[in-house]
Amino acid sequence: MKQYIGLIHKDAGSDFGVSFPDFPGVITAGKDLDDARSMAEEALALHVEGLVEDGDAIPEPSSLEAVMADADNRDGVAILVAAKTDTRKAVRINVTLPDDVLRRIDAFAEAHGYTRSGFLAKAAEKVMDLEVA
């Protein structure tokens, strides 16, 4: 299991944000440090799963030195986040959705560090868990 550097950022009056220099655009946040770390693990896992599903390469983790050499990263606190991947087999499917719903899904997924597939899988699991409870 590979570990990637996540950068925690905190502005006054905001949640704890986490970004991943090896995965530009993958961001998440948590109300406290524990929540931020948990959300970081989830966001990274879903993003990596999406890359695998799409047949894209997963980058090698950058070193701390390489990450911190970028001046834009120096205001964050570095943590290691394990890239936990799901061992279940992914199956490609074709789904038809209204275009406005798809645009909203894509915008939400991107804003919260998910891939489209990762977000849809997570949303479906949450709804199904609600039905069981």
CA distance, first residue to last residue: 32 Å
How is the largest sheet built, in terms of strand order? 3-2-1-4
Structural class: alpha+beta
Rg for CA atoms: 16 Å
Tell me the domain tally: 1
Q: Give average pLDDT, whole number.
A: 89
DSSP helical segment count: 4
Q: What is the overall shape? A: globular
Helix content: 40-55%
Report the CATH architecture. Answer: 2-Layer Sandwich
Q: What is the chain-wise order of helices and strands?
A: EEEHHEHH
Would you report the number of β strands?
A: 4
Give start-end ranges of low-pLDDT stretches. Answer: none
CATH class division: Alpha Beta
The CATH topology label is Double Stranded RNA Binding Domain
Strand content: 15-25%
Largest sheet: 4 strands, antiparallel
Organism: Mesorhizobium erdmanii
InterPro entries: HicB-like, Ribbon_hlx_hlx, TTHA1013/TTHA0281-like
Protein name: Type II toxin-antitoxin system HicB family antitoxin
Pfam families: HicB_lk_antitox (PF15919)
